[in-house]
């Protein structure tokens, strides 16, 4: 038993796979739980941390994800890297028949001007806070 415990304590895990990184910077969007700009601001924060963000949604929330991506792109903050669509088999809540739902994943990366635009926005917000004080 000691040998097993010692082996478990000495396990070294290296995460070099990019899909493992994507799990940390993935935002699963709902069109009912949070307001649109909650997700826009969260995506900005994830891009600051990880240089890219993956937006994911099912069914009716797909339009929300597309809107978030377009807001970030149109404001010059993000560039589109990859878009993946698929269908997912799901069961209805009561354990009924299986239902297929559309799924979209949009991978966005920082634009060249991302840091510059974020710094300008932070400076503007600091100035506004100063004026209100």
From TrEMBL:
One of its GO terms (molecular function) is RNA binding. Residues 25-86 form the DNA/RNA-binding protein Alba-like domain. Transmembrane segments: none annotated. GO terms for cellular component: nucleus. Pfam families: Alba. It comes from the Eukaryota. This is DNA/RNA-binding protein Alba-like domain-containing protein. It comes from Rubroshorea leprosula.
